[in-house]
Specification:
Length: 156
């Protein structure tokens, strides 16, 4: 399934890869919203992770892409937002499984570890692989229940 629009964000370490991916995403028929950053000047990754993750969390965008140097910091921030399932993927297999099993809605890339050609393959696979549902839905439901419990919204 192709999402119709996507939001992408990066820090300075992810900026070059973000710029390389934008035309590729547009070629895939997606409307791309760029949440920044806009240069290789040093910035703080939580600011950009929050912009993208909040947009996905509240449903303004069905999917997002985040890029920092390792992908670790972006993952840490994004997965604090309700309903966000951010997956750091370093190859196509991880991208495929993050969709089939985890229904990942944010793809996290490592700008200092993953070259543009590999990143494009990862992105294509991630965007075109459907969620399998079934036993995997039961597991996602458990993530949702945990999220609610930790937010204090249920007495479980
Ligand atoms: C920036 O130097 C770097 O710390 C950041 O891009 C990211 O890798 C953090 O997880």
């Amino acid at each position: 399934m192709n999402a119709e629009k996507i939001i992408i964000g990066a820090d300075h370490a992810g900026y070059p890869l973000k710029e390389a991916l934008k035309p590729f995403l547009a070629e895939m028929g997606l409307a791309v919203a760029d949440a920044g950053t806009d240069s290789e000047r040093a910035v703080d990754y939580p600011d950009f992770a929050a912009k993208v993750a909040e947009a996905v969390s509240v449903g303004v965008f069905p999917r997002g892409i985040l890029i920092c140097g390792t992908g670790v910091g972006m993952s840490m921030v994004a997965n604090r937002f309700p309903g966000v399932r951010a997956a750091l993927c370093r190859d196509e297999e991880e991208a495929r499984i993050s969709r089939m099993h985890n229904d990942a809605n944010i793809l996290v890339l490592a700008g200092r570890k993953t070259d543009a050609e590999t990143a494009m393959k990862i992105v294509r696979t991630w965007l075109t692989t459907p969620f399998e549902g079934g036993r995997h839905q039961r597991r996602l439901d458990k993530i949702g229940e945990t999220e609610l419990r930790l937010s204090g919204k249920t007495g479980l």
